[in-house]
Design a protein that fits this description.
Layout: H1 3-38, H2 49-69, H3 73-92, H4 101-120
Length: 127
């Protein structure tokens, strides 16, 4: 078997899985967002600036990165992964809410697949 053919096939498979997974994640986050708007949980009633900045990165930065990945895989994937890590730095680590890491990795998972796919895809020569 040709190694370049196998790499291309793997890249296509990862891309398809990432796209399906990203649709599911976006639908889930939209469902959660609409649910929170319709039936607010109340919470603590106080949102500090750190939480507002964190919301820019999670979920909006992650979803934006996934959407961008459909056209520009590597750029969108990097945006998704950076948004995830900034969210970790702002919210999860300072509050020692490390139990939230597996769920957030599951939500940002398509970004990692898009990134791997972008490195496996054969480069097209520009003439």
């Amino acid at each position: 078997m040709n190694i370049f053919k196998d790499r291309k096939r793997l890249a296509i498979t990862l891309r398809v899985v990432a796209k399906i997974w990203s649709i599911l994640v976006i639908a889930f986050l939209l469902f959660m967002f609409v649910g929170e708007v319709v039936y607010p949980h109340g919470g603590e009633g106080f949102v500090d600036i750190t939480e507002i900045i964190a919301m820019i990165f999670f979920p909006f930065g992650i979803v934006g990165g996934m959407v961008i990945s459909w056209k520009w895989e590597r750029i969108g994937a990097i945006m998704t992964i950076i948004s995830l890590f900034i969210f970790y730095i702002l919210i999860l680590i300072p509050r020692t809410a490390l139990r939230g890491i597996p769920m957030s990795l599951l939500i940002a998972g398509p970004g990692f697949l898009f990134l791997i796919s972008s490195f496996l895809s054969p480069k097209e020569k520009k003439s």
